[in-house]
Amino acid sequence: xxxxxxxxxxxxxxxxxxxxxxxxxxxxxxxxxxxxxxxxxxxxxxxxxxxxxxxxxxxxxxxxxxxxxxxxxxxxxxxxxxxxxxxxxxxxxxxxxxxxxxxxxxxxxxxxxxxxxxxxxxxxxxxxxxxxxxxxxxxxx
Length: 141
Fold this sequence. Notes:
By secondary structure, the protein is mainly α. Helix content is 50%, strand content 7%. Strands 1-2 form a two-stranded antiparallel ribbon. Helix 1 (9-18) runs antiparallel to helix 2 (24-36), helix 2 (24-36) runs antiparallel to helix 5 and helix 5 (82-94) packs parallel to helix 7 (110-123). The longest helix has 14 residues, at 110-123. It is globular and about 40 Å long.
C-alpha cells in the first residue's frame, strides 16, 4: 500500500480521484475535500487512507469510512469545528456514513454550506457552479 505521507495535497487529491471509479458520489466527496482544502494536508486523514497501484502504474487512494468514523468518535481528528463538519459530509457522500444534516450543517459559514450544496449537486451527476462557490456575488440573492 502506498505511503501517502510523502504526497503533496495535489498528488493525494489526484490519487483519491483515481480511486473513485467515476462514481458521482465519490467524485463529489473528493471534490468537497479538494475545494475545502484543509483535510488533504492532514497527516491524520492520510494515515487512514488506503490505496494501491492500478494497471497503468498510477497510485489510487480511497477511504474505509468505518475507520474514519472510529477516528472521529475517538477524537483522533480533533474537536467539533467546521472542518470536521466538511469531513463528515464528504464521508457521507463517500460511503455508508449516516449523518444528521441538521447538526452537521448547523452554524456553518455560508462558504462551507455552499460547498456542501454544490457537492450534493455533483453527487447526483449535475455540473453546476453555485454563485457563492464561484466567488460571484452578482448572482447571489
